[in-house]
Amino acid sequence: MKEISCKLLVIGAGPGGYVTAIRAGQLGVDTVIVDFQKPGGTCLNVGCIPSKALIHAAEEFEKVVHAGHAKSPLGISVTQPTLDFPRTIAWKDGIVGRLNTGVSGLLKKAKVKIVDGHARFRDGKTVEVETEIGQQVIRAEAVVIATGSAPVELPALPFGGPVISSTDALALTKVPERLTVVGGGYIGLELGIAFAKLGAKVAVVEAEGKVLPLYDAELTRPVSKRLAELGIDVLTGARAKGLSTKGDALVVETADGAEKKLAAEKILVTVGRKPVTEGWGREEIELDMAGRFIRIDDQCRTSMRGIYAIGDVTGEPMLAHRAMAQGEMVAEIVAGHRRSWDKRAIPAICFTDPEILSVGLSPDEAKKSSREIKTGLFPFQANGRAMTRLGEDGFVRVVARADNHLVLGIQAVGQGVSELSTAFGLAIEMGARLEDIAGTIHAHPTMGEAFQEAALRTLGHALHI
Ligand code: FAD
Ligand code: NAD
Fold it and tell me: Cβ–Cβ contacts within 10 Å for residue 304, how many?
């Protein structure tokens, strides 16, 4: 196979890599992208998109089941709802397929060359790709490493048999009767709640003192309440020790040091993800590391000239929108634009029930900055739209500097609050003060009014509470 040369080579077509390639292509940069999987990476194929599809299906099913069981306050009743799970999975796979085709189309439209295979550095400017039809050598002026991340495996619970990763969980063809989740973080709770709604008896084993340890207790309280309502058993301060001899239960060391067996048809291990820093010839080039991640500067440059790294392989937060923003920036840098990382905040959303959203600093983080702060919280119990959606559990909370009212952070927990991330993110990115949010007309009746009211409350004059 003959060698090809290009200005920019992108390794990995996840949200980081494919956005880099599309933007570079739009700017007229001669670009090649390599991946051995369908375009879209973890996010599109086995992450964000399929998990949100499953979460939505579970939510819809649970609503119908709930209407059938209890006396629905809405006056709706149904008899014997059933679930055709293979059809649910086929619908989810259909969405993934449509998006794969969409990303390929966007890459082609931007005149990006797609090479299907496994890339490996020969040296800082040359990469060899194992393709189905032989080896392809690619020489590039600039290379972007966007190899992403993979699930962490626990030595005592290697993946295989009943022990599954999030990728396996999203490909199940039957809802397990009993699902035990090890790790009560993002994936464990998002998928644990979804499977509980689909009919599985779910238990969650979390090593820390509370689930979702990343978020403060005020934010996670409504989620913990919902876990109990859904019949999900939560063991905190507990550690998974391994499979029982028969392989039908998880052995756990509980917070008080006792040993407990949790019967389980499937054990979903979601204890974090690790950057993919092996398998692509890192040893052939000299890259400084920052712990387990590739070290980058504020332009995503690595320690080696002409080599950039973006996305999960470069550190926390391992989120698709961070990878995409880095990718867009790097493409513009390669095209000769002056860019550097100047983002004020990266929104984080946990698609649990209810959803949790956090942008900028939490009250505790803001206090650590040693400035005096003000916070205000507006509960959805006092929001008309939330009431009409049976979504009164939750709130919007605003954190601002006490002296000039600059908004430092905004958090929310509640039904559908993920869609408020745009307003929260924009407020922080634009340097809004409490008065800017309080002075913006928020349409009525919407859950977003709670944002305006939280700002008003921080100023001491909320209207509807
Ligand atoms: P990835 O998406 O991991 O892509 C890396 C790509 O590189 C892969 O396609 C891989 O095949 C390819 N690759 C690796 N090595 C090579 C090589 N040697 N040669 C060629 N190609 C290679 N994030 C959110 O923001 N919101 C969510 O709701 C969300 N939900 C998630 C749910 C789950 C179940 C999981 C697992 C993750 C979720 N994430 C979510 C995280 C999100 O998926 C990642 O942050 C995002 O995919 C990172 O993008 P990336 O481009 O850095 O890497
Ligand atoms: P996580 O870091 O969110 O949660 C892992 C949890 O496992 C933590 O609560 C941790 O305390 C616990 N844990 C660690 N070791 C344990 C052990 N031995 N026994 C019991 N508990 C243990 O990781 P994740 O859920 O695997 O998700 C990985 C990453 O993927 C996230 O950090 C996030 O960046 C990304 N993600 C994002 C979203 C989203 O944006 N909505 C959704 C899913 C995943």
Answer: 17
